Amino acid sequence: MTIEERRVYDRQEATKRKRKQRENEEKLRTVVMTPELEEFVDELVSLRLDVASMALAIWQNENRQKFPLLAKPEYRAGEEQAAFTARSKRWERWGLIRMFATNAIARYKGRDRKKRFDDKEAKTAAELGMTVDAFRKHKRGQKLAEKMAQIAANHYVV
Q1: CB hemisphere CA count around 28 (13 angstroms)
Q2: pTM of this prediction?
Q3: Largest alpha-carbon pair distance within the chain?
Q4: Angle CA(103)–CA(108)–CA(110) in degrees, nearest 5?
Q5: In the chain, beta strands by DSSP E
């Protein structure tokens, strides 16, 4: 495939991807901010960040779309600075929650896998009468020895 053919192919694939993305966006329901959703936002903003982001991730997963953005607060004439600051802080907090919600479920699953792995290693180390750190060093040493033996076997084949 020549360079020009490759460029044409890439352009066609990009067009297909974009068309498919637009079709998927059309299939999704458009969420309009209702009083219930505003109440949901207020509740999430009052929670801890990890809990709020997980709750939002679950909502987005169930509804198969991102939660709508909140409008950036603007200063209103005659408004006290404290009121504006409170609205601005709420908006910033909501942005953080939305950002962390994008991979909250994956992070939770990763933490769970890591915990199971650490528990398994601790159990194995205890069975061998070693500390976890010593067991990990021992495992690394074994893997390195296996790799070196494999390299030597492949390299010095007669």
Answers
A1: 18
A2: 0.63
A3: 89
A4: 95
A5: none
pLDDT at 27: 64
C-alpha 3/C-alpha 39 separation (Å) is 55
Q: What pLDDT was estimated at residue 124?
A: 95
- Per-residue pLDDT for 30 more than 60? no
| C-alpha distances out from residue 42 to 47, 59, 72, Å | 9, 15, 15
DSSP symbol at 75 = P
Instruction: Return all residues near 104 (Cβ < 8 A) that are at least 6 apart.
Output: 50, 53, 54, 56, 57
DSSP-derived secondary structure letter, 1: -
**Closest CA relative to residue 47, chosen from 105, 94, 91:** 94
